[in-house]
Amino acid sequence: MAKVDYEMLKKNATEIRKGIIKAVHAAGSGHPGGSLSAADILTVLYFYKMKVDPKNPKWEERDRFVLSKGHAAPVLYATLAEKGFFSKEELLKLRHIGAMLQGHPDMKGTPGVEMSTGSLGQGFSCSIGMALAAKLDKKDIRVYALLGDGEVQEGIVWEAAMAASHYKLDNLTAILDFNGLQIDGKNEDVMNIHPIKEKWESFGWHVLEIDGHSFEEIISVLDKADEIKDKPTMIIAKTIKGKGVSFMENQVGWHGTAPKDDEKEKALKELGGAN
Amino acid sequence: MNNKIATREAYGKALVELGKVNEKVVVLDADLSKSTKTAAFQKEFPNRFFNMGIAEQNLMGTAAGFATSEKIPFVSTFAMFASGRAFEIIRNSIGYPKLNVKVCATHAGITVGEDGASHQALEDLACMRAIPNMVVLNPADAVSAKKAVFAMAEYNGPVYARFGRAAVPVIYDEDMNFEIGKGIEVKEGKDAAIIATGIMVAEAIKAREILSKKGIEVRVIDMHTIKPIDEEILIKAAKETGAIVTAEEHNIIGGLGSAVAEVLVENYPIPMKRVGTLDTFGESGKPAELMKKYALTAEDIAKVVEEVINKK
Ligand SMILES: Cc1ncc(C[n+]2csc(CCOP(=O)(O)OP(=O)(O)O)c2C)c(N)n1
Questions:
Q1: B210 and B142: one domain?
Q2: Domain boundary at B122, B139, B169, which?
Q3: Nearest to A121 by CA among B250, B60, B74, B84
Q4: In terms of CA atoms, which chain A residue is nearest residue B85?
């Protein structure tokens, strides 16, 4: 494996975070909190791990990424734009009428979006079909699915979890963006999901736990997942909702609120980097 | 019609009032209590509020269980997830045993706006209408929304009620009469009748103003109950005006337009047209822009009324 360019990853993650803020600000609505929490994970997936070709989004051999927590669309869009799937200018049209970038991912309208999501739990289930198809075609394709910790309260998540281990989907890696918050408050207060590691293990998954903001840990665990045979892998990534913008961090109110002009400026300044 | 309030706001307030006079009322939500406005009930009656997490099927099943135990559950989430994800639970565990559950779904229709197609329920009235035993309500403004909540609590049986996210004009005075199954003639007219539901009632009233400038007098009927539909008021309107236009913030397939057509075809066929989304998914945008793009505005209704009058 080539030496990892951490400087580049850091720069990309910063750009993605700035893209999220600009896009949600321009839209006047959307979900910054759960987008920022997943920014480092998507950075590593798209700039270190996954085989994708922005010039050929439908390349048959590509790895697949499904954003099952579809409300975090801004992080996916900012990542795809950073990777070159489409122009960054599209980000500023997010959620506008006639725009390519819909409020929730639309696979028919946006290059690089693998599955239409937004109804929690559904995307994860679709990733099972993608992983099964890859096995059927004997293709070296990995499927990645990102879930929210509130999202795992959905029954369909566990139906999919059962199927994934039943079919020994070792080409499937799920990542749980474990930021501890949903809309009405902390997971523990709304609907306790613990013990979460044991749940996935008892469903037949190989479970790994990491700090979801450490590039080193994300990289090493994604590489490790490739080695696990006959089981799907779940990576429980401990994250901070709103990560990178001080006034959004761990604030449940920033789940689905757009920053106002001054808040946008403040956020961009904190994130630093060029412009 | 200057004052604007979202029907979900009225719903949340009405629940609190209802909770004070009816101890049997319990409220359930699925991690959207701030948006569905059930949070106000939670604040007032914490022991009678249950957040079930992001799990709409279990939300509905739990409500059914409450209803078997002499409670009156009001269950809320977005219309998409209530009528969509939990459809079969509503059908088999609420509709079939005819349990006293009130499914109060918010954020219905295209005016959800920026969240886009995945969140714009444009099929919910059709789905819910197809379930035997299910009463289907779609109040037009804040006043009728509040009255609907009290009427639902009085009625013993399953009800689906649709509420909207966006602020809409207040049409009614506080003393209006909301009776399940009875349409309301909001405006008189003899040249045609607009049968509207939900937020489209306000648009229909504006359409009437546009048309009256051209010397066309249209009747406006608020069909707040999609099921059981008020056949009497429909047949009367058909006989007296000879032309009917339906208006709904919903797919033209399966909702109000279909319900009205069924009645007219069997009883008094006359020229009729439906205003609604034309069997398409919506997209992200501002509610007002979407109303225009999907041809749901007063101007659109007025145009269709003229078309249908020409077919008389
Ligand atoms: C089926 C379904 N139910 C409800 C919602 C509304 N909703 C959107 S985001 C959200 C909370 C998600 O929490 P979590 O999965 O923890 O995401 P994160 O905190 O990472 O943003 C809810 C309830 C939805 N999109 N889909």
A1: no
A2: B169
A3: B84
A4: A119
